[in-house]
Design brief:
CATH superfamily of the largest domain in chain A: Dihydrodipicolinate Reductase, domain 2
Order of helices and strands of chain A: EHEHEHEHEHEHHHHEHEEEEHEEHEEHE
Shape of chain A: globular
Distance between the termini of chain A: 35 Å
Structural class of chain A: alpha/beta
Oligomer: homodimer
Helix content of chain A: 25-40%
CATH architecture of the largest domain in chain A: 2-Layer Sandwich
CATH class of the largest domain in chain A: Alpha Beta
Number of domains of chain A: 3
Largest sheet of chain A: 6 strands, mixed
Strand order of the largest sheet of chain A: 7-9-8-6-10-11
CATH topology of the largest domain in chain A: Dihydrodipicolinate Reductase, domain 2
Strand content of chain A: 25-35%
Chain lengths: ~400, ~400
């Protein structure tokens, strides 16, 4: 059995979540890639082997210590000794990206960093690969979940910035020191990376102008609501006059219908605009520990398997054709007493439980509109057949499934 | 100079758009990959060389003839003779996918098919690569732009299905024979492919239950509007009870706030749910010719370059720090005559043109809320400085950028 050795730098929130994920998924990954991933060691600031020892027994290094020093030195050493590197370090990439990418090219190894921007939203891969052929005009992003949560909360409750921040801290969406988030600096680092990939131009964090959300007042959000504008902390990278590039982060009102206007709470989203494709938008939960860890694991697996392979279908889930669904039910019925009773009786006979019912119209416009709780589709179909046969029906019954909110 | 030879099968809407794109982007692709892509030949049903001759002088085959025969035979031959293949043929993959993927694995070549599902929305790549490490619970998709356009139109205007279909045909969003689209069969083929990738289980088109939108009535959409439910033709693939898999396509009401509820017009979107990542949603224009061609080109480029490489920064766009923006402007002013005149004068001095203005409140609550047309940010900042110095101001002026709708 071949082993793929992963050396881990850092064991904070993301690092420990990654170590857990890797162990949980080792079996699945082995079936897909033919290689069994194993943690060859963990190095933190306070414990673990020396870095050279860890490097010696690793095929790939996952860098999750953050900051510039010693992260930069470690990543460079790993690349120069022929190891793939996966990192989620946006500060490092937005300040020393060119040096690191050059080292990766020179030593013919992979440097992946999906986790550095927008958590599990795969914007890095899409820019590097799917859109490699497109000329990109503009990138708009909500790339900081903390500030998006705060602005959503201010808009929802009318509370002040300080109160929304306190709520974000209480829920774990903001750190004890939220400076990097609320000033826009965290988003600026991410936009430097996105702009580099989208426009193939070196962009340093220092070249990104940024403003935060500290000065947003509740009545700005009131105004936004009145005009149906979304107020977001938006990162932009935009081609200007053909040869110019503007990269910035600032609060902005978005016109109604902008793909980012409906992105609420601690979510991240990125819209990429290009004449050839009009626009693509990707959204998902921002960079919490589990999400970033999942993005890092995706990168590790990508480094293990050949590109674009569709592995054999290892699962053999049985195909199920009778599932539980909720339904909307539209019945054109006779306008006479006892109609609802008859319909209800038939539904009860097939275990269909009614969630809501509205009687509408009169005489030859009389209708029953119902929504029923989830039920096996076969049972519902049987009820429909029986209802269709009732003399009170003026037309065949109509039903449409209802997809309800689920968690998990 | 090394050449990368692309043999093209099919020269319809997508095929000809692809040939044009490839030529337009050949220079850029060469700079990125070090290889110059060239069309080595085009084969259609009515003209061109024989397939073996085309194969002989191609490194990669792009299959855009559609249908099963001779597409299946051509793709198999290409893979078996060591050529990469890029295809957008959803019928082929949903009926003969396992055979083709096995041939690709066996001969160690790439079979890419981003264009087969959701146009330029990179759902295939994300399922195959970014989420390779995630256990997926559910996939929901709007994967047919024609039906989504029709349902949007019915909801917007209250018109009947037949009228909305006619409008879709007039605008080029529906074909002369729309059967595959409106019956849900097109979406079913795409869901078979997505389910195979998400759940690692072979899924044949015949195993996907589907219903169309032909029987949707205007009053169903009226009901949806009343309850703020979106009505969409939804593809689902869902794990059931651990070892089961249900794959289907049907019209469904979506609860308000569902990520797909706000996807309107000829757009496609896919939401992938997994406990580890909660959910990721991707959206973009559906499969028009240019979008599919762009997805196909992305696949071709991916087959040319090593994975996860960040190419040297070939562009050197100059970083622009003074750009044009539209602004919202919030001024707490004295409640006295001539205030608006003074502010307007200062704005005019800096070429800031007012789009809308509202006077609000009285006495010590008096405010001017304005939106101004796009203007160089430096000019706007100068106006802000001057306004801040006016004696009529009760507090420093506040400004927030406004992102307006753009086309292109």
């Amino acid at each position: 059995m071949s082993v793929f050795r992963v050396g881990l730098l850092g064991h904070g929130t993301v690092g420990s979540a990654f170590a857990r994920l890797l162990e949980e998924h080792a079996g699945r990954i082995e079936r897909t890639t033919g290689l069994r991933p194993e943690l060859s060691g963990v190095l933190t600031r306070s414990r673990g082997d020396s870095f050279p020892e860890l490097l010696e027994r690793s095929d790939l290094i996952v860098e999750l210590i953050g900051g510039l020093d010693p992260a930069r030195e470690y990543v460079l050493q790993a690349l120069r000794t022929g190891r793939h590197v996966v990192t989620a370090n946006k500060q490092l990439l937005s300040q020393h990206g060119e040096e690191l990418w050059e080292a990766a090219r020179e030593h013919d190894v992979q440097l992946r960093f999906e986790g550095a921007v927008a958590g599990v939203v795969p914007v890095i891969r899409v820019l590097q690969e799917s859109l490699a052929g497109a000329v990109i005009d503009r990138v708009h992003g909500i790339v900081n979940g903390t500030t998006n949560f705060i602005l959503t909360e201010m808009g929802r409750t009318g509370c002040a910035f300080a109160d929304a921040l306190a709520e974000a801290q209480r829920l774990g969406y903001a750190e004890a020191d939220p400076t990097d988030d609320v000033t826009g600096r965290d988003a600026a680092a991410k936009m430097a990376i996105l702009a580099r990939l989208a426009f193939e131009t070196p962009v340093h964090l220092d070249q990104v102008r940024y403003e935060g959300i500290e000065r947003i007042q509740p009545d700005d959000l009131e105004y936004a609501r009145e005009l149906e504008l979304g107020l977001k902390l938006i990162g932009t990278a935009e081609r200007i006059d053909g040869d110019g590039l503007a990269v910035g982060v600032y609060p902005a009102f978005l016109y109604p219908g902008h793909p980012l206007a409906s992105v609420n709470g601690p979510f991240n989203a990125v819209t990429i605009e290009s004449e050839a494709i009009t626009e693509v938008t990707m959204s998902g939960p921002g960079a919490g520990g589990p999400q970033t860890a999942s993005a890092v694991l995706g990168d590790v697996i990508s480094a293990m398997i050949p590109p674009a392979s569709t592995p054999p279908a290892l699962e053999r889930l049985r195909i199920v054709s009778d599932v539980r669904s909720s339904f909307y039910l539209h019945l054109e019925v006779a306008d006479e007493p006892g109609v609802l009773a008859q319909v209800s009786q038939v539904l009860a006979l097939q275990d269909v439980s009614v969630k809501s019912v509205v009687q509408k119209g009169m005489r030859d416009q009389a209708r029953l509109v119902m929504v029923v709780h989830p039920v096996l589709e076969s049972r519902f179909a049987a009820a429909m057949d029986m209802i269709a046969g009732l003399p009170i029906m003026r037309a065949p019954p109509r039903a449409i499934r209802v997809i309800e909110e689920q968690f998990g």
